[in-house]
Design brief:
Helix content of chain A: under 10%
Strand content of chain B: over 45%
Radius of gyration of chain B: 13 Å
Strand content of chain A: over 45%
Distance between the termini of chain B: 38 Å
Low-confidence stretches of chain B: none
Oligomer: heterodimer
Chain lengths: 111, 110
Amino acid sequence: SQTIHQWPATLVQPVGSPLSLECTVEGTSNPNLYWYRQAAGRGLQLLFYSVGIGQISSEVPQNLSASRPQDRQFILSSKKLLLSDSGFYLCAWSVLGEKLFFGSGTQLSVL
Amino acid sequence: DAKTTQPNSMESNEEEPVHLPCNHSTISGTDYIHWYRQLPSQGPEYVIHGLTSNVNNRMASLAIAEDRKSSTLILHRATLRDAAVYYCILRASNDYKLSFGAGTTVTVRA
């Protein structure tokens, strides 16, 4: 069966520090991969999605970047975090955009 | 992108049915109607999706209007564990993205 791993579960980082969140999927090949962010009390915002290795689409201009170095690995990064980067980050996968399966999320607090 | 409109919140009593409406008057012929729900402090989970015909699964039923401009998610017997934010989303058949709106916050009273 397919599983998605996302870590860490919580993260507290100072403003200006770098960020790297990793997401891996098991049990499927060539999945579509997604990064979403949810600010406190707000809806989910699609940040990036990828349909293949090295193929990244950015939905919102921001302080973040994404990379897909392997078929089932999706990384969210920032060189210098801002206060506004705080939020609940969710990784998800799908096959051809049908059902999305989400990870357990990372709660990021930038102080 | 075609948009959806949902009520901000709904309340229900435990073991009663819940009917969650969604309006999507600008839906195109190839847009699928998806429903997800998000429990507190968790990622969303898939509930159901459909194109034209009504759909049933173990979690819920999806009733789609004949003109497809609206749909209703039906939880047949609400439990306390069904308290969540429910999202109605349109996805074009050739699109891999799902854009979530504000959703409907469902509260279930014991």
